[in-house]
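hi!! sorry for the late reply, been swamped w classes. u asked for the two structures so here they r. pasted raw, havent cleaned anything up. first the sequence of the first protein and right below it the tokens
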Amino acid sequence: MFFDDGRVLAMREMILADTEEGRRASLAKLLPMQRKDFTEIFEIMSGLPVTIRLLDPPFHEFLPKNPEEAERLAADLGIEIERFNDRLRALREYNPMLGHRGCRLLISHPEIVEMQVRAIFEAALIATRTTGVAIMPEIMVPLVATRAELEYIKVRIHETARAVMAESGKRFSYQIGTMIELPRACLLAREIAECAEFFSFGTNDLTQTTFGISRDDAAGFLASYDAKGILGYDPFTTLDRQGVGELVRIGVERGRQARPDIKVGICGEHGGNPPSIAFCEELNLDYVSCSPFRVPVARLAAAQATLAGRGSTRVA
């Protein structure tokens, strides 16, 4: 969504801006692009549930990977290369996947939240008009570890919703939920659920942060673990029931204690893995979400688990 040629330049411009004013100018370029994307999605889904995760990747994923690319980008943006490199150094992180990303990034730069949710709400109003069906977006906040993080971002979402309603003269409904992808969030799911209308367990990151294993580097040693009988499966393919699964179980139970009607599911590659789907049925999750090419397998696995009397998980 952000990596197309016309968008990635505006995204990079926003990232490299060192003032809020500069970031807002770049976000103003991204707003119509996001609004168009979301309008098309809402129109295609025509009233079916649509969950949109707010910006999650760390900034480094959008930045140049070598000096030649850096020089080209600096020229495109009209920035002196020395100043450009200074800004790159300031943004560099030692462990970006556990660094300034997800809700942490959104809290540091709430103007990103404002742009994205404005695009969502304006798109929902357009799609409601074109389809004749009331669109209710589901907005998901990533990488939450504390209730306070979610509450801070919720305030910004509500403020933007009120502004869009005032400007349009139209009222609309929406839901706010969160990714549960850190062990702390699982353990504190009861208090997080008090201000979330749905949970989506991000089992890719939850597996990384529970095992302390980088998903991108695991292939280098998991084969050896398998051969030596230490771990007979890939935990990034099949959900680890004893560790990661137990955290999911705790999170589901505690979340439902605080909010019995909370919608709960998982997203990630485990959502298309039959043994993992069977575990989701045991927890009576409401849905599993996976990449498109895994949907047929996920549907079949969910149906088999349902026929076995385990539940009625929906595939998204």
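now the second protein. again sequence first, tokens right under
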Amino acid sequence: MAKEFMKGNEAIGEAAVRGGVRFFAGYPITPQSELPEYLSWRLPEVGGCFVQGESEVASINMVYGAAATGVRAMTGSSSPGISLKSEGISYLSAAELPAVIVNMQRGGPGLGSIQPAQQDYLQATKAAGHGGFRMLVFAPYTVQEAVDIVYDAPEYAERDRSPVMILMDGCLGTMMEEVELPPMKELPESPCKPWTVGYDGTKRGGHLITPIYPEAGLEGKNKLAVQRTRRWEENDVKVEEFMVDDAEWVIVAYGMSARVAKQVVLDLREEGVKIGLIRPITLFPFPKKSIANLDYTKVKGLIDIEMSIPALMREDIELQVLGRAPVYEYGRSGGILLDDESTKTAVRKIIEGGEQ
């Protein structure tokens, strides 16, 4: 299959189209504006619909409406925009509606910086909206991996009738890499399904789709959600383990930070340091076993590397380490990128004497 040289935002837009997305509603915000820009002309070419909403809030509710009809729906934004969408994301979860959500992170908190960051980890994995719901969260580290994940994301969303989040950053969104684009998926003539509005061919046909439940019904729904989360933890964890078999030091990093961390591992290996990398591809469910099952008779420490200060993933790492080895962190924040030389220096200092 021929490769194309594409910008991250545009590549995931094309992957979404080929994966069956036929509705996108969004609002321009740097650094993800090229995603809606691309889809504004690409979706109409395949019979889809693009809407630039008047706000982030309006856009996520348009996605809610489209998803209720069975159309594969998607939105994208960046950090503060996702915060504005959080109520609508919670409503999607409550109504059991599938949707694909892309967060191209930027520096924060507040309006922050338009430069890349990884400061939305807790929001994405713990509290993407009110009500304690969870959703699958993917964190690609190359444009190709982002294409592959976005291509399959509508399938996950429909399987679970749940929103799915792709957590990226402005660096991945705006960088250009070679990608292999997958084939166009064949879609049924009608998007209607047994649970959608209009499933019997009439405007009013279909089950009641609502985010509102009586107390007993809501408790039952939450219990079912716990069962679904356990299925995710059993079947859907994705992780890369790189040179960890004999490692005395293990870096944990995701997304763009993992690209830097992998180079650091290679460089330090050449210097004789036994070091490896655990790269979560799913941030939720978190790859607990990869960390819990390390050989702690050999492992001297773990280092959480993120484009965030503080390192937000550290708590999840420590919950699996359970005090069997120290956990350190190194990061940059607010839109300042990691680079391999300064990161290597920081890791070396940690290895030599603890926190740098």
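hope this helps!! also noticed smth abt the second:
Residues 3-235 form a domain with the Rossmann fold fold (CATH 3.40.50.970).
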